[in-house]
């Protein structure tokens, strides 16, 4: 493989591989890529063009290069898969040239987050989360600064001291015992 003789070097392709390998998987280390992320890489980097290469082709190549029992591919297997896809994607070009053109598509790319839910920042949300506008029993759940009181603000915690609620001499029983002795 002639490094740098095209538009994308192996190092740049490996960086892109790592970024796509960890996409959507918090436990991924970036050394192996699953099939879903492999297809995402191929779509985002325009390896899948809908004519010469479809997502089915990509799935087939992924299955071919991975180890039978494995569900992921390593970077070496990824290069093997790209070598297979390159001649299909760039028909009429030599394998080396096709591979360099394919590397050019992948180098420096990152997973695009199309369709990711944006945080809603509407007036309705502000109104609903403004504790100064709360009334009735809900108002009791927040202190003056608007910070929630937690469990204290939500529950009526019963007094289990044994005294009736209006009794003023609570805690004086021990003193009365001492006085009578």
UniProtKB/TrEMBL annotation:
Its main location: cytoplasm. Residues 134-181 are annotated as: Disordered. Signal peptide: none annotated. Residues 137-157 have a biased composition (Basic and acidic residues). SUPFAM superfamilies: EF-hand. Keywords: Cytoplasm. Coiled coil: none annotated. Gene3D superfamilies: EF-hand. This is Tubulin polymerization-promoting protein family member 2. It comes from Astyanax mexicanus. The lineage of its organism: Eukaryota, Metazoa, Chordata, Craniata, Vertebrata.
């Amino acid at each position: 493989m002639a490094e740098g003789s095209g538009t994308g070097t192996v190092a740049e392709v490996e960086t892109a591989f790592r970024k796509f390998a960890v996409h959507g998987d918090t436990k991924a280390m970036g050394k192996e890529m699953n099939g879903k992320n492999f297809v995402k890489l191929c779509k985002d980097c325009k390896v899948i063009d809908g004519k010469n290469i479809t997502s089915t082709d990509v799935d087939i190549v992924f299955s071919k290069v991975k180890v039978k029992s494995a569900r992921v591919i390593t970077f070496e297997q990824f290069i093997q898969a790209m070598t297979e896809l390159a001649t299909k994607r760039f028909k009429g070009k030599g394998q080396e040239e096709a591979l360099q053109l394919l590397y050019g598509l992948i180098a420096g790319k990152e997973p695009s987050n199309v369709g990711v839910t944006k945080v809603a920042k509407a007036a309705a949300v502000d109104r609903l989360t403004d504790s100064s506008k709360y009334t009735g029993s809900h108002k009791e759940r927040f202190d003056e600064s608007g910070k929630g009181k937690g469990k204290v603000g939500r529950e009526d915690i019963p007094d289990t001291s044994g005294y009736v609620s209006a009794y003023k001499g609570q805690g004086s029983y021990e003193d009365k015992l001492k006085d009578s002795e």
